[in-house]
Design brief:
Elements: E1 5-10, H1 24-41, H2 46-51, E2 54-65, E3 74-85, E4 88-96, E5 102-114, E6 120-121, E7 153-159, H3 173-181, H4 186-191, E8 192-201, E9 210-217, E10 224-231, E11 237-248
Antiparallel strand pairs: 1-3, 2-5, 2-8, 3-4, 4-5, 5-6, 7-9, 8-11, 9-10, 10-11
Helix pairs in contact: 1-3
């Protein structure tokens, strides 16, 4: 059985922003969907892991954007399990536009977690071995902690509500991407596009939690930003942190 997975999708109007560009959080949703489908095909999907008392938790992602397709266009997304790094299962993605040009590259790192104890398990505990494509790389980046010491400014406060909660009763990672995107104004998006996005997912949040979202410019040109969320209901515990790199809107 091949160890990569491909799907073709048509971009709908609800997948794009006011510039008629495929939204970053929409891309993130497509990536999570195909990762789930490929894991199922390889015998390590949600149902198989539930029977073993385990689940996949996305811990880290790095995405680079070369272009942004528009509504009604089709694109292809390819994913594959790349290997193991420490306790992480690595999975990469390539997205191709309707001219078969790559417009997005991504690397992700997943942890195998016990349902009851919430402890990270060794990948040897998977119910079935996974064939890795160790020589295929969308990106060569590996998960690393993001540490920024500079002063941060609060952008907004967020209460976790019904539409933020998934079937596991916590906030899905795609929603955290939305929280990051919502740090910026329409005027900012009119003049800029995201060049790259790196996120570390650090703790879960649940319905009713109060979050504070902070942003800090960390490059001299002002194009690279640090973003983090703190959970006021959990001793100001860090929920996620991210590095967002911007470029002018002339792709």
């Amino acid at each position: 059985m091949k160890s990569f997975f491909e799907e073709t999708h048509k971009i709908r109007t609800y997948d794009v922003d006011f510039k008629n560009q495929l939204k970053v959080n929409s891309i993130f949703n497509f990536m999570q969907d195909v990762a789930s489908e490929n894991a199922k095909e390889l015998g390590a999907g949600w149902e198989e892991l539930q029977e073993a008392g385990l689940f996949w938790a996305l811990s880290w992602v790095k995405i680079e954007f070369l272009n942004y397709p528009k509504s009604e266009e089709s694109f292809k997304i390819r994913t594959w399990p790349k290997g193991v790094y420490r306790l992480y299962a690595l999975r990469d993605f390539l997205l191709f536009d309707n001219q078969n040009n790559i417009f997005c590259r991504a690397a992700t790192a997943w942890l195998l977690v016990n349902v009851k104890s919430k402890r990270v398990n060794d990948l040897k505990n998977l119910p079935k071995g996974i064939p890795y494509l160790t020589d295929e790389h969308a990106l060569t980046d590996l998960p690393a902690k993001i540490k920024i010491e500079n002063k941060k400014e609060i952008v907004y406060k967020k209460i976790v509500v019904y539409t933020d909660i998934d079937m596991n009763l916590h906030v899905n990672n795609e929603k955290y991407v939305e929280f990051i995107l919502n740090c910026y104004s329409q005027e900012h998006y009119s003049a800029n596009n995201i060049k790259s996005l790196q996120i570390s997912f650090l703790s879960e949040t649940k319905y009713g939690d109060n979050l504070e979202i902070f942003v800090n410019k960390i490059s001299q040109d002002g194009n690279t930003h640090f973003v983090e969320a703190l959970n006021l209901n959990n001793d100001n515990k860090q929920v996620f942190n991210a590095i967002v790199e911007w470029r002018g809107n002339n792709l």
